Amino acid sequence: MLNFDQIPILDHHAHPFLRRAATDDPARFQRWFTESTDPMIHQRYVPSLLVFRTAIRWLSEFLACDPTVEAILAARARFSEAEYTARLFTDVNIGMVLCDYGYGSADAYDHAGMQALLPCPVHPILRLERLAEEMIIAEPTFERMIEAFHARIAAARDQGVVALKSIIAYRTGLQIEAPNRDAAREDFIRLKEIAEQTGRVRLARKGLCDYIVHLALVEAERQALPIQFHTGFGDSDADLRYANPLHLRNVIEAHPAVQLVLLHAGWPFFRELTHLTAIYPNVWMDLSLAVPFATVGIPAMIREILGMAPFHKVLFATDAFTMPEIYWIAARWGRWGLSQALIELIKQGFLTEEEAMQAARDIFWDNAQRLYQIE
Ligand SMILES: [Zn+2]
Fold this sequence. Notes:
TIM Barrel
């Protein structure tokens, strides 16, 4: 039987861990097995999620302990964070991580912290909206804010950043319109008032959101930096109607030289995203988040994607966050789902074993290496 396990994973989209103290009781551990932000879902309904049940079973086998959250937490506490992370990453063979630090929890490790904990190289991704929020707070005028924002993204490649990332789907939606400087300035003035009153700001005004994404598209082209866009499902903050990747058509067509990495298989719009990936050279399709959350639905989804999209433009990632266990679980589901799909294609005579092996190498590592131009 073919074995894809020795192919390492280049995890091209993930997030930092939280300090262990933030996830070391059952409630705080359990909370990260859902995209829901509702405490009732966390407490009452997570235990009946398939993704959670399998996680507990697999982790209890891995740690040789009882299949309970309490036993798993006690077992993991015997290892340092770095030792435990190394054991998990080695087990599922994750060989490199591209990390988006922009999700803003005071408990999250920074880049140096992740470098110290991971047993493999990690490279930073720059999140645009978070950067813009920092600049709104720091800069007195719209012109100064845009100047500062532009200066930071213009230096991204030189500072080791390997991709830009936009969460505009979460803020004002993917139907991005032509840049309008006056509308952007007006939004800045409103947001600056809020920032001055509260010391914080959440950038969710369309004029400014669209404007900074356009600036980033121009800079991405100049530096040959791919841009990752959140598409499809996420937490309840995202209005799923405006997260359909089909809304990006104008951007895709107006920026043919910018490589656009559309995240999360656009789930549930993975057919729409498959189509975009098949017809536009600059669209790439990521499988993360749909893996692991689609669980037993993963092989059928991948089978449909591989039925239509070029194998050279499909990428695997974990989109893991908060705990090393999430990386491990996503990688296990991803390895299982892709091998199920490929083995079925071999059995039915659509792929040779050699072609299937190459497809797995492409999806787990080679495509990301080509796209992000990482040594
Ligand atoms: Zn993510």
